[in-house]
From TrEMBL:
Subcellular localization(s) per the UniProt record: Cell membrane
GO MF annotation list: dipeptide transmembrane transporter activity
SUPFAM superfamilies membership: MetI-like
Naturally occurring in which organism (per UniProt): Jannaschia helgolandensis
Residue ranges of the TM segments: 116-139, 151-175, 257-277, 308-328
Record-given protein name: Peptide/nickel transport system permease protein
UniProt membrane topology term: Multi-pass membrane protein
Recorded family membership: Belongs to the binding-protein-dependent transport system permease family.
Cellular component terms per the entry's GO annotation: plasma membrane
Length: 335
């Protein structure tokens, strides 16, 4: 397993470099000029100096190499300096946002807590609900619980977030006035009262996201459980006199989790990527909204950095899913 993990990590390096090159070249073809929003009163020579400072006067391959070095070397050095109060990154040029003229990773670090509060909580809630629902629906196939669960999950999976988000705002924020409709990103959680306010403003966006994620995961869980409940090893376990609870929750569940782990692992990068539509509906100042504003402002360094971070997370959690396969199923060996 260790050899397989190291081999996959080494293989991930050229994969990520290729992805980085594709992202960089695609964004190079995007129309627009980052200097377009500069006031007309700025003299042309000052504009040219600003263009040079942003790296716009250099060849494409030079800018790509500088961006790779900044992403994999300069930015980690800055994190190390921040954590251990060193100065290894002093004087090194960081990835600068064209929109706000600030380091890209500082802006991302400011936005990521809001995304983790909302999207991360929704994902954990969805997993906690979806797996038990999927297990019981499969075990009690065609029962009233299974029929209702199938109907609810189909509705939750079919209704887009921009519709369900507006719907819950009308019901719970406008009509009932139980929860706020706009997420206050300035709220600081430093007491039980502020924590309660944070939970209240998180409730609606978490509900919308959890409904969609639960619908997907529970269907996968149910289908996987049904596939394993009819296998020969289940009949053998029952013939040996094992308790039904042990058969279902130990033998069947362990094998049924293998395909579900893939769905869960590949969904984790979406937590850091944010929920673009939901964040727009509830005004959550997170990563998803940051990506939208960066695209609208033609902020190429911000867009390519965020996109590449998502790619890195997807490759990483693919590896984690493969390793978990070997843990869940002893028959899988990576020789």
């Amino acid at each position: 397993m260790l050899t397989f993990t190291i081999r996959r990590l080494l293989f991930a390096i050229p994969t990520l470099l290729f992805i980085a090159l594709v992202i960089f070249l695609l964004l190079e073809l995007a129309p627009g000029d980052p200097m377009a929003n500069v006031p007309l009163t700025v003299p042309p020579e000052i504009k040219e100096q600003m263009r040079q400072a942003l790296g716009l006067g250099e060849p494409v391959h030079i800018r790509f190499w500088k961006w790779i070095v900044q992403f994999f070397w300069v930015e980690p050095l800055n994190v190390f300096d921040y954590l251990f109060d060193t100065n290894f990154a002093d004087g090194r040029l960081r990835i600068i946002s064209w929109q706000n003229r600030a380091p890209v990773f500082i802006t991302i670090a400011e936005r990521i807590p809001q995304t983790l509060w909302v999207v991360g909580t929704a994902y954990l809630v969805a997993i906690a609900i979806a797996i038990p629902v999927g297990i019981y629906s499969a075990y009690r196939q065609y029962s009233a619980f299974d029929q209702v669960g199938t109907f609810v999950t189909m509705i939750g999976f079919s209704v887009p977030p921009f519709f369900s988000g507006v719907l819950v705002i009308i019901i719970f924020a406008v009509q009932l006035r139980w929860f706020p409709s706009i997420y206050d990103t300035r709220l600081v959680v430093d007491s039980w009262e502020s924590f309660g306010m944070q939970v209240r403003q998180m409730f609606l966006p978490v509900m919308v996201l959890a409904l969609q994620i639960t619908s997907q995961l529970s269907r996968f869980m149910r289908a996987s459980m049904l596939d394993n409940l009819n296998q020969d090893y289940v009949r053998t376990a029952r013939a040996k006199g094992l308790r039904e609870k042990t058969v279902v929750l130990v033998h069947v569940l362990r094998n049924s989790m293998i395909p579900v782990v893939t769905v869960i692992a590949l969904g984790v990068p979406a937590i850091f990527g944010g929920a673009i539509i939901t964040e727009q509906v509830f005004k959550v100042n997170g990563i998803g909204q940051l990506l939208i504003t960066a695209i609208q402002a033609n902020d190429l360094p911000m867009v390519q950095t965020l996109t590449f971070i998502f790619a890195v997370l997807i490759v990483l959690f693919n590896l984690i899913a493969d390793v978990l396969y070997g843990i869940l199923d002893p028959r899988i060996r990576y020789d």
